[in-house]
Amino acid sequence: MARHSSAYQRGSAFPPSGRRSPSPQPEPARDATDSPTHPEAGSGAYPGVTDPLSYPGAGDPATFPDAASPRAYPTAADPAAYPAAAGSPHPGAARSPAYPGISEPSMDHPNAAGGPAYPSVAAPNQPGRFGAADAVGPAGVAPGAPAVIRAAGISKRFVSGRNRATSLKERFVRRGGPAGDDFWALRDIDATIGRGQTVGLAGANGSGKSTLLKVLAGILRPTSGDVEVHGRIASLLELGAGFNGELSGRDNVYLNASLLGLSKREIDRLFDSIVDFAELRHKIDDDVKHYSSGQYVRLGFAVAVHVDPDVLLVDEVLAVGDEAFQRKCLAKIAEFRAQGRTILFVTHSLDLIESMCDRVLVLESGSLIFDGQPAVGTKLLRQKLGSLPAEGPVDWQYATVRPQSVSFSPEPGGLSMVQYDPGQRLTVSVELDVTEGAPENIYLHTYIVGQSEVPIWMMETPAGGFVLGPGRHTVDFSVPHLPELLGAFAIKVHVSDAATGAPVTTRRFDELFGVTGPQADGLLKVDYEARLRA
Ligand SMILES: Nc1ncnc2c1ncn2[C@@H]1O[C@H](COP(=O)(O)OP(=O)(O)OP(=O)(O)O)[C@@H](O)[C@H]1O
Fold it and tell me: Any idea where the ABC transporter domain is (predicted)?
């Protein structure tokens, strides 16, 4: 099992025992000084291959959101809450155009061990670490699928180059002060990917998708949090796909495939198939620096899918290929999926997520705001991106105040009952989940709706609303004497901010209560007279 965590030691095996206190270090912003080389690279075994028994904290069972009942995640913690940068400089996060891609490790990442490595290789399967307690069963995947990737509390801070200390002296002088402009690209992400899942990673530009993929691949070190990986990962993370521009396509195939764990003999056997897949036989002996971006990606993808990975991580790079190659890649992904391999891919194509994924993770400003069924997650994202109007201000599942359930009983807190006679007491109880960021004074109005959604009457909280803190609350609306009615009735709840009147959400519940009065269906009885005017 390979693990990436903030407890990494540079260029060496993992610590022998005990959880190290992280010495998180923000990534520097991409700039011209980022180098693709790895001066710290030591010699040694393939990176990421570690002694599973020595890893601190492995086996902490995390709790996972129930993907079948998607939930919004709490607002990300204030960056200030994260530990300040300390420890050795971290010049990684290179995005050099020359060697971006599959496997470029940041320099102080342990994967930097192993010579001129651009590995995204993770350790071969190590049985025993992921037991039944780790099983996850998100949408579309049989419950009990073992976890292959687990990210716990992942945060990633970058320091922009603008105000970054550029010398030791400056660093010393600024000690205790800000190291530069902090920017949190990821905030407290928890996610567990089960074996065989095809997971889409979606979100607006800059929401943190690529950063998360790189952290999972072990290419970026998280500022805090842990990643565990069970199995061999092949990743295609950026345009350029991790090739050495000075080498030919042929040499790069050998270099990359060997870094992904294949022997020379295995690569000899696969070579033709890789080249054919990439459709680059005519170019294979040219230096890859003369390749077009699409050709880079073809070769990178071809290598990645030929090394028999357990987990395939793919960034939006597919968009670079022409349509025919995209089709080929998607067919390959579908084949992997059918073989029960695990795939995590970033895409802006929400249709693709709906058609290919079992599950979607949606990021917003570095926070995971949704983890669950693709149809629901893409709807949320479309709403957020403004391509789909929200039903009411915000779908109730994502609102800061969520009407969770409604129940009917004669007395508040009494046994629930659904059938009533006119004149009887009825209490409609609305259960609300109030999250951080909800209005302080919450105003509810509930409509009792009859056939064809016709409102029969309305009940509301006092004008100032109720002050409800985060947590679960129940609001009871009691009707001492039900009017004469006949029919079945449902409840529609509107939530708004009592201070500003701003709507929060609306939910129409399916639960019904019935009243067996003498009236015609669904009508309220009022006293009246009928006279013929003289
Ligand atoms: N090395 C870096 N230094 C500073 N900021 C960075 C660095 N890498 C990424 N960022 C910033 O982190 C944020 C997340 O970037 P990331 O590439 O993960 O987003 P994304 O969701 O993949 O975006 P897109 O859809 O546009 O590809 C962005 O604001 C980006 O500018």
Answer: 168-390
Q: Which helix (H) or strand (E) holds 216?
A: helix 209-217
Whole-number Å distance between alpha carbons of 464 and 493? 17
Distances (CA, A) of 189 to 110, 211, 226, 491: 21, 12, 10, 36
CA–CA separation, 200 and 347 (whole Å) = 7
Q: Can you tell me the distance from the alpha carbon of 205 to that of 385, in angstroms, rounded to the nearest whole number?
A: 10
CATH topology for 2-384 is Rossmann fold (3.40.50)
Q: Using alpha carbons only, how large is the chain's radius of gyration in Å?
A: 29
Tokens of 2: 């390979």
* Residue closest by Cα to atom 7 of ligand 1: 29
Could you give the CA distance from residue 39 to residue 384 in angstroms, rounded to a whole number? 43
With the most atoms of ligand 1 within 8 angstroms of its CB, the residue from 187, 207, 348 to mutate is: 207
The protein residue whose alpha carbon is closest to atom 11 in ligand 1 is: 185
Pocket around ligand 1: residues whose beta carbon is below 6 Å from it?
27, 29-30, 93, 158, 160, 183, 185, 203, 205-211
Domain ranges of the chain: 2-384, 398-516
For 305-354, write each residue's pLDDT tens digit: 888 888 988 887 666 667 788 888 888 888 888 898 999 989 888 888 88
Contact 523, 510 (CB under 8 A): no
Query: Tokens representing 398?
Result: 């994502």
Q: Is residue 108 predicted with pLDDT exceeding 60?
A: no
Which homologous superfamily does the CATH classification assign to the domain defined by 398-516? abc- transporter (atp binding component) like domain (2.70.50.60)
Q: Is the pLDDT of residue 212 over 60?
A: yes
Residue of 172, 195, 397 whose CA lies nearest to 312: 195
Looking up tokens 């990633």 gives 156
